[in-house]
Recover the amino acids of this structure.
């Protein structure tokens, strides 16, 4: 069984609906659904609260699959940091390029069109392709 299957099993065993469980954990009902369907994993705090609600150990709830859960949570946090700081560094590099170009030529020229396009592409990816 997967973590999501275990959450659903223990939730139903305790006679709880997704909405009732979500209210006890302070997350949305859709979040519980995502956990049960394997779309996402609960964070550590939510997992501890669920194990208390279900009166089972963390090991039982995670089905000894906690190494995979922790790995996916770490990867997600790393990707979020790369997105955050990568975008910032990219924008700083572009500002430096604009400054150097303006300082040398005393005007902005067409060589900046690809630069502007790349800024738009990165902004689009950051906005619409969240991990």
């Amino acid at each position: 069984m997967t973590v999501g299957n275990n959450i659903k099993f223990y939730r139903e065993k305790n006679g709880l609906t997704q909405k009732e469980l979500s209210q006890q954990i302070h997350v949305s009902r859709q979040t519980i659904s995502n956990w049960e369907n394997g779309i996402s994993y609960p964070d550590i705090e939510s997992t501890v609260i669920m194990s208390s609600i279900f009166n089972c150990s963390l090991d039982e709830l995670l089905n000894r699959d906690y190494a995979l859960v922790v790995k996916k949570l770490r990867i997600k946090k790393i990707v979020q940091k790369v997105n955050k700081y990568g975008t910032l560094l990219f924008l700083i590099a572009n500002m430096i390029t604009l400054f150097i170009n303006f300082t040398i030529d005393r005007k902005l020229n067409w060589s900046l069109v690809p630069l502007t396009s790349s800024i738009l592409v990165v902004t689009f990816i950051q906005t619409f392709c969240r991990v």
The first helix runs from residue 3 to 13. Residues 3 and 63 are 6 Å apart (CA to CA). The helical segments are 3-13, 18-25, 29-36, 44-54, 58-62, 66-105, 112-128.
